[in-house]
Amino acid sequence: MNYKIPVSVLVILFTREYEILLLERADRPGFWQSVTGSKKAEEELLLETAKREVEEETGVISDSNRFLNWGRSFEFEIFQHWRNRYEPGVRYNTEHVFSLQVDKQANIKISPREHLSSCWVSRSEAIAKVFSWTNAIALRELPNYHAIENM
């Protein structure tokens, strides 16, 4: 079995108006989140993981220099119902935070294998809607890390 690497990214996609893209998990209906995903290989750079996951989960293709690596990470205990994806004995994951400002009109194409739906919501709505405490903290901190750019 190919086990997941317990190193992942959390990528917040947002607009100039701080509208946040959220995705509803296919394996857990009602669980909303930003783009997330694990490294595919130990040697994969975190930026490569972030770019790949955004493309896979949303269809958004963006230059690497548009992603902001916050230099911020969270360690959390992996939910019991997802531990079978990791090597036996692995209980913790380290999640690295990135952000990417996009045009709301970007054509979002969710991966039906991973997500049921997507929505654009205000930052405060996103904070209340996401199931992950790390995602909620990152959304609260977004304005501290990423100044809005004119697109």
Fold and architecture overview:
This protein is of the alpha+beta class. It has one domain (7-145): Nucleoside Triphosphate Pyrophosphohydrolase, CATH 3.90.79.10. The protein is built from three helices and seven strands. Strands 4-1-6-5 form a four-stranded mixed sheet. It has a three-stranded antiparallel sheet with strand order 3-2-7. The longest helix is centred in the middle third of the chain and has 13 residues, at 46-58. The chain starts with 6 loop residues before the first strand and ends in a 6-residue tail after the last helix. The mean pLDDT is 93.
Quick overview:
The protein has 151 residues and is of the alpha+beta class. 22% of the residues lie in helices and 33% in strands.
SSE string, helices as H and strands as E:
EEEEHEEEHH
Low-confidence stretches: none
Mean pLDDT: 93
Number of structural domains: 1
Q: How many β-strand stretches?
A: 7
Kindly report the name of the CATH homologous superfamily.
Nucleoside Triphosphate Pyrophosphohydrolase
According to CATH, the fold-level topology is Nucleoside Triphosphate Pyrophosphohydrolase
Structural class label:
alpha+beta
Helix content: 10-25%
Strand content: 25-35%
CATH architecture type: Alpha-Beta Complex
Q: What's the CATH first level?
A: Alpha Beta
Largest sheet: 4 strands, mixed
Rounded to an integer, what's the Rg over CA atoms?
Answer: 15 Å
Instruction: Give, in spatial order, the strands making up the sheet with the most strands.
Output: 4-1-6-5
What is the 3D shape?
globular
